[in-house]
Design a protein that fits this description.
alpha/beta; 8 helices; 3-stranded antiparallel β-sheet; binds 2-amino-2-deoxy-6-O-phosphono-alpha-D-glucopyranose; 7-stranded parallel β-sheet; 10 strands; 232 residues
């Protein structure tokens, strides 16, 4: 695992270049995307690179990490909508290549099973982009999530619901095992609010109480952290 401590601006630029590099490496790359406010400048930078002709998303296949249960894709509060607004509508990714967990469906078991199958049949994720929750969650894998967990329905912690400002109690998320299967991982963490958790993730014990700590066992993970988040 590589940890890069940079200014936020540099971290965003370097992370975006890493995404571009992976896209160029293959004819049809599979990229895992994340949501949250940390990702906004990254998507802005990727859109800028696209407009400058530096990257082409027409053959990229995407899988997003997670979605709230009870929200269909066209709901304004959904992560699907966030992705459309901040990224998909601004680049040339093809609608048919966008994969999303549909939180509006009741048969979540088959939704999750099908998602795992689709990831596999598309050749596996080449690069998974991640943010981190203040309690160490990745995707919506809250503390207690096992290293081998797969895409499933989870309960959100009170902390996550408060910070994210949502009433939804459940979500669908790729599992830790699903994330760890990605060939490469890029994690971004910015700001003072992440300094405590970054210290724990990088220096604490690896285990299910701190889901992001499992990333230390990944062969090709890069953490892009700004100076504030790296303070401790
Ligand atoms: C949400 C998402 C995560 C994200 C995290 C951090 O809970 N499910 O994928 O990494 O929040 O969000 P932020 O970037 O807003 O701090």
């Amino acid at each position: 695992m590589k940890v890069l401590v940079l200014s936020k601006r540099e971290a965003v630029e370097r992370a975006a270049l890493e995404v571009v590099k992976r896209i160029k490496r293959k004819k049809r790359s599979v990229i895992g995307f994340a949501t949250g406010k940390t990702m906004i400048p990254l998507y802005r930078e990727l859109v800028r690179l696209y407009r400058a002709g530096k990257v082409d998303f027409s053959k990229v296949v995407s899988f997003n990490l997670d979605e709230y249960v009870g929200l269909s894709s066209n709901d304004k509060r959904s992560f699907r909508n966030y992705m459309n607004r901040n990224f998909f509508s601004k680049v040339n990714i093809k609608e048919k290549n966008i994969n999303f967990l549909d939180g509006g469906r009741r048969n979540w078991r088959s939704v999750c099973r099908d998602y795992e199958k689709r990831i596999k049949s598309s050749g596996g994720i080449d690069l998974q982009i991640l943010g981190i929750g203040r309690n160490g969650h990745i995707g919506f894998n809250e503390p207690g999530s096992g290293e081998k967990s797969r895409t499933r329905k989870v309960k959100l912690s009170a902390m996550t619901r408060t910070i994210n400002g949502v009433k939804f109690r459940e979500a669908l998320t790729m599992g830790i095992g699903t994330i760890m299967d990605a060939r490469g991982i890029v994690l971004l963490a910015f700001g003072k609010e992440k300094e405590e958790i970054m210290k724990k993730v990088l220096e604490g014990r690896v285990g299910r109480e701190l889901p992001a700590s499992f990333l230390r066992r990944h062969k090709d993970a890069i953490f892009f952290i700004d100076r504030e988040a790296a303070q401790k």
